[in-house]
Amino acid sequence: MPARRAVLSALAAAAVAGCARSLSVPQVAAYHQAGRPARPRVRTAAGGDPLAPFFGDLAALDAHAARRPVSIVQVGDSHSAGDYFSARLRDRFQARFGAAGRGLLPPGRPDRYYDPKLVRVTEAGWTRDSARGGAGPIPFGIAGVTQTATGPARMTLTSDEAEGFDRIAIVFRRLPQGGSFAVSVDGGAARTVSTRGAEETVRALFDARRGSRTLTLETQGDGEVALLAWGTWRDVPGVLYQNFGIIGAQVDVLERCDAQSLATELQDAALLVVEYGTNEAFGSAADLADYQARFRRDVGVLADAAPQASVLIVGPPDVNRSAGVQQCAVRYRA
């Protein structure tokens, strides 16, 4: 299948190297919670090809039969947090099957080294919490990071693509004492969203004018606002390749992610790319005795949250740490 060959080629090369209303003005439509059931898909039986559903989605793009983006989500440690391996794959997938934009991202700036491709992000006034530090007051989603604010706070996300975006997603936690935030595009009229209510994770979708450039989110200072993810893309056939990672993380960080939050965020995922193992290599050899069982269990957290998605495991990069120096160097091999 041409689509299959293109995907495998992209992976090898990279390793080496809703229903909201459309608007014609620069503002966002009224939001709605995207809580529809995931697309039905039967898992491949033993001996079958577990990637077949994903290849089918790509084949539909190839045949110009698709109407929506195909969503790929990569999750892992620092090699997934840094948009390098993922950027190379994104470039190749989008060159081959069409570009639909950047997709979902961690909220704000999740770490000091954050440098996402295709977009620029700023933030002010937020408090960050990471799943690497243990369970937090707000359940974690796929990013493993939450951003909270009780007073005035602001985030901006600017697209560097000539085509900009026309679709927005904000993933937030509804809280009994939740506050509100305003969403605007390119300085246009804002829509205010209340996060007050029974506790749950909500993915709110908005439509914006085609070619929109900058998304701005501002809290109103009337209660706690907790964000789990956000993003922009174009609602066209093509590929979205989204990456999430935590520096220094091991696969057990997935145990700290909330099942309902994951299911809300991953409901459109066609492929999950899972990359852990580098940080585990520096632990005690005794820790590896049951690693396979623990790895399967933890990856199962993702698979259960997105039963419609294929799952691809990527082996950890080579790593070397100099004696007495807490630095490491990595390289990818084909």
UniProtKB/TrEMBL annotation:
GO terms for molecular function: hydrolase activity, acting on ester bonds. This is SGNH hydrolase-type esterase domain-containing protein. PROSITE patterns: PROKAR_LIPOPROTEIN (PS51257), TAT (PS51318). It comes from the Bacteria. Coiled coil: none annotated. It comes from Acidisphaera rubrifaciens HS-AP3. Signal peptide: none annotated. Transmembrane segments: none annotated.
